[in-house]
Amino acid sequence: MNKTILDQIGNTPLVKSMVLNTNPNVSLYFKLEGDNPGGSVKDRAAYYMIKNALDAGEIDESSKLIEATSGNTGIALAMIAGLFKLDIELVMPETATKERVQTMEAYGAKVTLHPDGIEGARDYAMAKVDHENYYSFNQFANDNNWKAHYNTTGPEIWRDTKGSITHFVSSMGTTGTIMGTSTFLKEQNTEVQIVGVQPTDGSKIPGIRKWPEAYLPKIYNPKKVDRILEVSRDEAMAMTRRLAKEEGIFGGMSSGGATAAALKLANELDSGIIVSIICDRGDRYLSSDLFK
After folding, report:
1. What sign does the dihedral 1-45-260-228 (CA atoms) show?
2. Can you list the positions of beta strands (E) in the chain?
3. Taking the alpha carbons of 172, 231, 166, 190 in that order, is the dihedral positive or negative?
4. Catalytic residue among 170, 171, 254, 276, which?
5. Which residues are CB-contacts of 42 (< 8 A; sequence separation ≥ 6)?
6. Of 204, 181, 202, the residue nearest 253 (C-alpha)
7. CB atoms closer than 10 angstroms to residue 94
8. Is residue 175 a known part of a binding site?
9. Any known ligand binding at 72?
10. Are 44 and 17 in contact (CB under 8 A)?
11. Quick check: is 254 catalytic?
């Protein structure tokens, strides 16, 4: 009975769609990452990045840490940094919901809001690294981001589907989730199809990105994604609301986007077992227009 909060990261539930999937020959499962203690899939990567940096002697309690984030990674880093008595500054777009800001501050982090979106936040953080002796985990280029999912998310999905998964669907942001899970699942069965989700041109969906070439995550390998499906902001919002009302799954907009893509996929298959990631919980979006 010596478990800590860190032991509660991972082993999240996998639940079957009861309403939204209407293809009787396809099973659609949702992996509920909001059940992590920090409320999102990013707990996995944050723990791996912090623990490995500490073990490697790259950081200690005297380090000045900084990270650019659209939200969930920041919350996870704030929670885990606090446990290890590390000071961290988190840089977010100024459009971030107040729930995210307040959650990070509750965990003890300093929050800086940037007017130029996530790209501006990334530039700001890296300038502090280059000129002010800060340390950044740089989740976009940190192999421990995707390795967290190679070591946990992928094996959990394989175990809980008893090796029968045929398709994996994930929103793409830093791409850590899809890279690590893809690597593991393809090692078990090369026939498993990996489907990434991106926004349509002009759509802004928190947690899902189509990066400009200069900002493309260095951990991203397009060979590990078999297919990319695009969803609009309206599709993602509508599906997020349906997830809550019809499936009892309260997630954020990136989860709605992934679900919309997973249902498109389900409707075109003759048979299959699909697993889609529900990235986080909906309560950190209540001050936005997502559920209005």
Report:
1. negative
2. 14-16, 26-32, 64-68, 87-93, 110-114, 167-171, 193-199, 227-231, 272-278
3. negative
4. 254
5. 72, 73, 75, 76, 280
6. 204
7. 13
8. yes
9. yes
10. no
11. yes
Q: Which helix (H) or strand (E) holds 70?
A: none
For 68-114, how does the pLDDT look when each residue is reduced to its tens digit (9 = 90+)? Answer: 998 899 999 999 999 999 999 999 999 899 999 999 999 999 999 99
**Type of residue found at 187:** E
> Which residue has 């999102």 as its token pair?
40
Pick the catalytic residue from 17, 40, 42, 224. 42
Q: Which amino acid is at 271?
A: S
Distance CA 93, CA 116 (A): 7
- pTM, two decimals, is 0.95
Q: Which two tokens stand for residue 209?
A: 């990105």
**Cα dist from 184 to 17, 128, 180, 286, whole Å:** 24, 35, 6, 35
- Catalytic residue at 42? yes
Residue appearing with tokens 């190679």: 150
173 is in an annotated binding site: yes
| Residue 154 in marked binding region | no
Asked if residue 10 belongs to a known ligand binding site, the reply is no
Structure confidence by residue, pLDDT tens digits, 176-213: 999 999 999 999 999 999 999 999 999 999 889 999 88
Q: Which residues pair with 167 in a beta bridge?
A: 193, 274
